[in-house]
């Protein structure tokens, strides 16, 4: 319709790199204490910035991979973090994306890629995407997790 077209033209007038970057909020967390604190403060931030619909935690494993002698404490902190992020996603109608490093588990006959934080952490997500290379093609293996649905698909990304 004409109304939608004029709205698009108005949006294009202000569309620039600066306008895009001015709506991206970035918080650097150097260790697990800073990450836990930031997630604790996140609900207030999202209430003040009600247009935010995407929260990305890039490298969830990094703060938890070092300086943890007590693995049960690490597991409890990670599970609590996952629960908080699920509540935040639901309460603020925001998508939460976590990236997790992969590591190689070496067996007697073969090696396999596994999530750096372990398989149990991988089940905290409702959708799990694993990207990998196969020869020169980048592939994505997708695994959707829920109580009633388990679906795997593979597709080529160009």
From TrEMBL:
<dbReference type="GO" id="GO:0140664">
    <property type="term" value="F:ATP-dependent DNA damage sensor activity"/>
</dbReference>
<dbReference type="GO" id="GO:0005524">
    <property type="term" value="F:ATP binding"/>
</dbReference>
<dbReference type="InterPro" id="IPR013632">
    <property type="entry name" value="Rad51_C"/>
</dbReference>
<dbReference type="Pfam" id="PF08423">
    <property type="entry name" value="Rad51"/>
</dbReference>
<dbReference type="GO" id="GO:0000400">
    <property type="term" value="F:four-way junction DNA binding"/>
</dbReference>
<feature type="domain" description="RecA family profile 1">
    <location>
        <begin position="1"/>
        <end position="102"/>
    </location>
</feature>
<keyword id="KW-0067">ATP-binding</keyword>
<dbReference type="GO" id="GO:0007131">
    <property type="term" value="P:reciprocal meiotic recombination"/>
</dbReference>
<dbReference type="InterPro" id="IPR027417">
    <property type="entry name" value="P-loop_NTPase"/>
</dbReference>
<dbReference type="InterPro" id="IPR020588">
    <property type="entry name" value="RecA_ATP-bd"/>
</dbReference>
<dbReference type="GO" id="GO:0005657">
    <property type="term" value="C:replication fork"/>
</dbReference>
<keyword id="KW-0539">Nucleus</keyword>
<dbReference type="InterPro" id="IPR052093">
    <property type="entry name" value="HR_Repair_Mediator"/>
</dbReference>
<dbReference type="GO" id="GO:0008821">
    <property type="term" value="F:crossover junction DNA endonuclease activity"/>
</dbReference>
<keyword id="KW-0227">DNA damage</keyword>
<keyword id="KW-0547">Nucleotide-binding</keyword>
<dbReference type="GO" id="GO:0033065">
    <property type="term" value="C:Rad51C-XRCC3 complex"/>
</dbReference>
<dbReference type="GO" id="GO:0033063">
    <property type="term" value="C:Rad51B-Rad51C-Rad51D-XRCC2 complex"/>
</dbReference>
<protein>
    <recommendedName>
        <fullName>DNA repair protein RAD51 homolog 3</fullName>
    </recommendedName>
</protein>
<keyword id="KW-0234">DNA repair</keyword>
<dbReference type="GO" id="GO:0000707">
    <property type="term" value="P:meiotic DNA recombinase assembly"/>
</dbReference>
